[in-house]
């Protein structure tokens, strides 16, 4: 896997089947830019590492929902959710790519 340099040449985007990913014109816009677009098969979270990461963050935020509602500044708690995602993806890509 190579770092993305901002150039769409020889780029591939793989998305799940979330309805927002099928917005009219997205596929054509990407193809016009030379980017290939593929969709994962429906109901295949095992092919999408983001599902597990977002699941972890959702559980974290659910556990702290009452705190998020009560504190004056929930930003530190939300930042911790970001760090969970960052750590998950860093570990995922270091170990699998």
UniProtKB/TrEMBL annotation:
Transmembrane segments: none annotated. Pfam families: DDE_3. GO terms for molecular function: nucleic acid binding. It comes from the Eukaryota. Signal peptide: none annotated. Residues 7-63 form the Tc1-like transposase DDE domain. PANTHER family: TRANSPOSASE. This is Tc1-like transposase DDE domain-containing protein. It comes from Amphimedon queenslandica (Sponge).
